[in-house]
Amino acid sequence: MRLYTFTITPNNRKVEAFVKHFDLDVDIHHVSFKDKETQSPEYRAINPMGKVPALVDGDFRLWESNAILTYLATKFPQTKALPADARGRADVDRWLHWQSCHLMPAMGALKTAEEKDLSAVTPLLQILDQQLAGREYLLGGLTVADFAVSAYLMTKLGRQLDYSACPNVAGWVERMSQLKGFAETQMKMPPAAA
Predict the structure, then answer these.
(1) Which domain holds residue 69?
(2) Which strand (E) or helix (H) includes residue 45?
(3) Pick from 37, 63, 79: which residue ends a domain?
(4) Quick one: 138 and 63 in the same domain?
(5) 190 part of a folded domain
(6) Residue 64 in domain
(7) Which residues of the chain fall below pLDDT 50?
(8) Is 162 left (phi over 0), alpha (psi -120 to 50) or beta?
(9) Are the C-beta atoms of 7 and 64 separated by less than 8 Å?
(10) CB < 8 Å & 24+ apart, contacts of 80-85
């Protein structure tokens, strides 16, 4: 099984962090954008969108980060990161869709806006804070939803958000950032030139 990735983006980082956190038997390949690897016919046969992440498992090709997360959790049930019951799975799916339909677009809008109104994300943080009340992770135990959502709040822009009114979110993001997978995928900035 091989993961094609580019760690720096949240959609890639969440999958790579999941693989590393659970020490999954997945070969991690960092694509070369300089060499236009994702535009090659070979890569387009894996992902016609020409984007990462993408996963190859034998003759199965899978793209879209949240689909990759749930596939890996299913293939590696020892992670216990995807509930087997219908309600538990639907709850995870809810948060995966929430991340892709609400959090990601809100963060993307902030990233591209000339004037950044960071409070625009406040209603989403409040929803998260309410969900995390009395819980260590989004659904109690660690699931793929935690990896999907938290990766966006660990970005440079995510670190600029005001979490003062959302202590549950602040604590959760800190816990997630300390997980082995996220610690190992933390991008280190090169030292400033003297």
Answers:
(1) 2-79
(2) helix 41-46
(3) 79
(4) no
(5) no
(6) yes
(7) none
(8) beta
(9) no
(10) 80/141, 80/142, 81/18, 81/22, 81/142, 81/143, 81/144, 81/147, 82/143, 82/144, 83/139, 83/143
The amino acid at 181: G
Confirm whether 140 is domain-assigned. yes
Does residue 191 lie within any of the structural domains?
no
DSSP 8-state class, residue 9? S
DSSP string across 127-173: HHHHHHTT-SBTBBB--HHHHHHHHHHTSHHHHTS--TT-HHHHHHH
pLDDT score of 188: 66
Compute the chain's Rg from CA coordinates: 17
Query: Domain check: are 57 and 137 in the same one?
Result: no
Instruction: State the pLDDT at residue 193.
Output: 53
What residue type is 117 in one-letter code? D
Instruction: Using a cut of 0.85, tell me whether the model's pTM lies above it.
Output: yes
- Tell the burial category of 191 from Cβ atoms under 10 Å away from its Cβ (0-12, 13-18, 19+): exposed
Does 107 share its domain with 58? no
Max Cα-Cα span within the chain: 57
Q: Which amino acid is at 190?
A: P
Task: Looking at the structure, tell me whether residues 69 and 115 fall in a common domain.
Answer: no
Distances (CA, A) of 194 to 83, 124, 188: 51, 41, 18
